[in-house]
Amino acid sequence: MTLKIISADQIEFEGTVKSVTLPGMHGLFQVLDNHAALIAALKPGRVTYVTEQETSTRDILGGVADIKNNVVSVCLY
């Protein structure tokens, strides 16, 4: 699936990932291939994503995640 992490002034990451863990308003949740369509508010916390080569993290202050058709778009505040 494709992950896009977008801030107000740039695309911070765009690439193929195996999984994404996000800090939802009601706790952490993980997105894998073929996840159901979803829009979720994100609270301050850590985004963790796994590529073929490594596991990476990014601290966020909040935002919105849009998940649809194997594309996870994370728009940061």
Fold and architecture overview:
With 77 residues, this protein is mainly beta. It has strands at 2-6, 11-16, 19-24, 27-31, 38-42, 45-50, 55-60, 63-68, 71-76. The chain has a single domain (2-76), classed as ATP Synthase, domain 1 (Sandwich). It has no helices and nine strands. The strands form two sheets. The chain has a five-stranded mixed beta sheet with strand order 2-1-9-8-5, with no helix packed on it. Strand 3 (19-24) and strand 4 (27-31) form a beta hairpin. The chain is globular, with a radius of gyration of 11 Å. The mean pLDDT is 97.
Q: What are the key terms here?
A:
77 residues; mainly beta; ATP Synthase, domain 1; five-stranded mixed β-sheet
What share of the residues lie within helices?
A: under 10%
Number of helices: 0
Q: State the distance separating the first and last CA atoms.
A: 23 Å
CATH class: Mainly Beta
SSE order and pairing:
Layout: E1 2-6, E2 11-16, E3 19-24, E4 27-31, E5 38-42, E6 45-50, E7 55-60, E8 63-68, E9 71-76
Parallel strand pairs: 1-9
Antiparallel strand pairs: 1-2, 3-4, 3-6, 5-8, 6-7, 8-9
